[in-house]
């Protein structure tokens, strides 16, 4: 013990350890230069490097036992963090920046998503017109809505199962987390039935024109309920969007066989005006409330959709049972075109939930307004309706609105 405290002996031990470390360093460097992979030998082990460093520090200050303990702990730390410690920034690489490539990919996927939504929205009305027989649809619209909600629920549940850890996911979610999704389901069911009722109090053209007020109601609720501020140019853009809807509803399409006696009477009652205002307000509330719930709850979108469409199936099934007559079967009158409508609207609902989760309800308004143009073109090509030169005005107004808002 006396020799351990002798300064001369400590100096000799330090010199020996220094020589050993220098020799170890030379041998490791030679292995690295020779291309020996990490972990391929004992000398290249990060644990050994950490152990020797810790041992030398502790051995010079205390005993060999403490040196072994300190070296072991240091070696374990170095071994666990070695991969993080050796990361070197790829400076001067000719390859594109990975985050930049990710942004480009996300932008491309977002563009594809929006184009699909516009096409699905725009094709809905022409497809329904193709299924009509003697001016009436041969199937039950309420049963169609139930099927659409059920398919969306089934696909959402399949997505939840495909992600794995289902038990842990369901165990972490309570009924209190699912309850808020009953509200938008009630809103949507209310509006679906209100659209049918209000047809007796106004003509279809008046409904198409006045329903554009939902753009204003959604924007007002978006700013007041979600606390999002819109710039003056964005408010102007939404004004252009409303104007495009009004112009399109009045003057974009004319039947080819229209003559002087084919003009339809424009009428609207006080009850009809109140109903369309209620329709626009409820539409805005449903969109804003759904967006708020989807974004405030930190849950997978597939699970959130499962909650939403569970309530949707239940409410719409009850509405179908209440309103349907006993003489018509659930799938009576379903043709290939009807199944295309069901599949398209199911995909539309799932894709729109992505927009509401990662985008905004305002983006939804632009999708619906742009779909009017697709509707016009498909109606011209499939139904023999004539496009007027005035059709270019709503096209221009929507383009200006997109430019001003984004």
Automatic annotation (TrEMBL):
Membrane-topology descriptor: Multi-pass membrane protein
Signal peptide: none
Keyword Transmembrane included in the entry's annotation: yes
Location (main, coarse): Golgi
Residue intervals passing through the bilayer: 60-79, 108-127, 139-162, 169-190, 205-223, 235-251, 271-289, 301-322, 334-355, 362-381, 387-405
Listed GO MF terms: pyrimidine nucleotide-sugar transmembrane transporter activity
Location of the protein in the cell: Golgi apparatus membrane
GO cellular component, one term: Golgi membrane
One matching Pfam family: Nuc_sug_transp
NCBIfam families according to UniProt: nst
The name this protein goes by in its record: Solute carrier family 35 member A4
Species of origin: Electrophorus voltai
Lineage: Eukaryota, Metazoa, Chordata, Craniata, Vertebrata
């Amino acid at each position: 013990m006396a020799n351990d405290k002798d300064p001369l002996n400590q100096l000799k031990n330090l010199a020996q350890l220094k020589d050993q470390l220098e020799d170890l360093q030379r041998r490791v460097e030679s292995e690295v230069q020779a291309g020996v992979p990490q972990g391929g030998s004992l000398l290249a082990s990060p644990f050994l490097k950490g152990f020797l460093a810790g041992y030398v520090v502790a051995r010079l200050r205390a005993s060999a036992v403490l040196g072994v303990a300190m070296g072991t702990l240091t070696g374990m730390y170095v071994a666990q963090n070695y991969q993080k410690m050796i990361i070197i920034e790829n400076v001067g690489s000719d390859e594109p920046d990975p985050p930049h490539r990710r942004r480009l990919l996300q932008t491309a996927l977002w563009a594809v998503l929006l184009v699909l939504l516009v096409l699905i929205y725009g094709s809905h009305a022409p497809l329904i017109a193709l299924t009509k027989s003697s001016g009436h649809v041969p199937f039950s619209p309420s049963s169609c809505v139930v099927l659409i909600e059920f398919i969306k629920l089934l696909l959402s549940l399949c997505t939840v199962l495909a992600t794995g850890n289902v038990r842990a996911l369901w165990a972490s979610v309570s009924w209190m987390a699912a309850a808020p999704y009953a509200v938008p389901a009630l809103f949507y069911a209310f509006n679906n039935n209100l659209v049918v009722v209000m047809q007796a109090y106004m003509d279809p053209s008046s409904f198409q024109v006045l329903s554009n007020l939902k753009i204003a109601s959604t924007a007002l609720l978006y700013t007041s309920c979600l606390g999002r501020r819109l710039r003056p140019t964005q408010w102007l853009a939404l004004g252009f969007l409303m104007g495009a809807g009004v112009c399109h509803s009045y003057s974009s399409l004319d039947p080819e066989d229209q003559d002087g006696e084919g003009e339809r009477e424009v009428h609207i009652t006080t009850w009809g005006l109140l109903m369309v205002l209620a329709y626009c307000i409820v539409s805005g509330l449903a969109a804003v409330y759904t967006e708020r719930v989807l974004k405030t709850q930190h849950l997978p979108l597939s699970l959130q959709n499962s909650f939403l469409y569970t309530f949707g199936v239940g409410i719409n099934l009850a509405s179908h049972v209440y309103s349907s007559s006993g003489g018509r079967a659930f799938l009576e009158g379903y043709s290939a075109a009807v199944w295309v409508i069901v599949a398209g609207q199911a995909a539309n609902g799932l894709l729109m939930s992505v927009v509401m989760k990662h985008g905004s309800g305002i983006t939804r308004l632009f999708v619906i307004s742009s779909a009017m143009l697709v509707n016009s073109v498909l109606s011209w090509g499939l139904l023999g309706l004539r496009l007027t030169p005035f059709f270019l005005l709503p096209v221009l107004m929507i383009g200006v609105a997109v430019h001003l808002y984004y």
